[in-house]
Amino acid sequence: MDFNYKRVAKSSGLKVDLRRGDDMRVFPLEKARIQIVWPAMLVGAAVILCYGWAMEREAHFAAPLVLIFLVGLSLTGGSNVMITMCVDLYPSSPSTATAACNLVRCLLGAGGTAVIIQMIKAMGRGWCFTFVAAVVFLTSPMLWAITKWGPKWREERRIRAIKQQEEKGAT
């Protein structure tokens, strides 16, 4: 993550300042973080697909174990990068940002756990995990949208916060 942060800073003509911190108003934070998430998410979706069909075909037990390890590695890595980005976006309340990300992650996990058995019974293992991989793949344009419009949204939020502070100070 740090390597990509420095690489994006260099390509943007910015210098990383470890002592005072960087001016996040001009730094393409979304680009620096999401560039790492893309490969992790796409590998994760592909491995979920392979896992489902390995289970459907009742492959040797080593195949699903290796695949589930790869799913954990890729999707957990992507999740950690997104949590880091949330902390970067809300530096004044990093614990709240982390807690919010973890709450959403756990709620999605609970929802998935609640329905996966019914999905497997209705669709079979292969098609069930094909569907899950398709959901991961089809939601990936959200990452592109965050990369494209995220800096604008971040700056609008910063300006709103400044205006709210000024209004508080005036009263």
Give a quick rundown of the structure.
This protein has helices at residues 2-11, 29-56, 62-89, 94-123, 125-138, 141-170. By secondary structure, the protein is an all-alpha fold.
Explain the overall architecture.
The termini are far apart. The protein is 82% helix and 0% strand. It has helices at 2-11, 29-56, 62-89, 94-123, 125-138, 141-170. 15% of the residues are buried. It is an all-alpha fold and 171 residues long.
Helical segment count: 6
- How much of the sequence lies in strands comes to under 5%
Query: Which oligomeric form is depicted?
Result: single chain
Question: What is the H/E string?
Answer: HHHHHH
Low-confidence stretches: none
Radius of gyration over alpha carbons? Answer: 20 Å
Q: Helices and strands: which structural class?
A: mainly alpha
Q: Residue-averaged pLDDT, rounded?
A: 90
Number of strands: 0
- The biggest beta sheet, please? none
Distance between the termini: 43 Å
* Mass-distribution shape: elongated
Helix content: over 70%
